[in-house]
């Protein structure tokens, strides 16, 4: 799941480059030139980086659980199944795995021939000698479940993981830890304050993305105030949140 964090960090570098571009142009231009939309773009990209990180880390975490590389989260007290176990995939997506299971002998024969040559199965072997080869074939198949990754990405793709509650719902697919309580410990802040601050950042992002950041209390063309300090604070905060989440996972 490290790649999800690496991609987030790369996205934040791009955001900081955008802020630096704003500052560089601002020092060389007059106040008549409004550069505030560069800062608005930086804020939108920051929340986008958070959203992408949650999508990616959950997808990769679920695949690790499927492969046996990560423990499935414990079910909540009011359920016999974890959120991972309740995750739904289509029968069409699982059809290829079902066909292999129904014809496992032919599938294994083809796998062994491809990996060891056609003459391998013409010789006699003990069961104990064949078991590691069979195990490797099955494990390789399990680790290459492209259909499952497609299913997860499709199911999660239309969802937005920006607001605190939505993020917590997503993380439950791969972890049974109380997300915001744990993040609060990492950041040395009350969980309630972290959630409120994140909601405020996301709400401002939504004003920019969906309302053109227009302040309706004033005349045409008036927008909500934004400056470098506000955006830098938001970027720093979101970065701390994501780094803390990754530490927990």
Structural class: mainly alpha
| E-strand count | 0
Our count of domains comes out at 2
Overall mean pLDDT: 89
Report helical residue fraction.
Answer: 55-70%
Tag the structure with descriptive keywords:
249 residues, mainly alpha, elongated, single chain
What is this structure, in a nutshell?
This protein is an all-alpha fold.
What does this structure look like?
- It is a single chain.
- The protein is mainly alpha-helical and 249 residues long.
- The chain folds into 2 domains: 188 residues, no CATH class; 50 residues, no CATH class.
- It contains 11 helices and no strands.
- The longest helix is centred in the N-terminal third of the chain and has 32 residues.
- The N and C termini lie close together (9 Å).
Show the helix and strand layout.
Layout lengths: L1 H26 L8 H32 L15 H4 L8 H8 L1 H13 L10 H17 L2 H12 L6 H8 L7 H9 L3 H21 L16 H21 L1
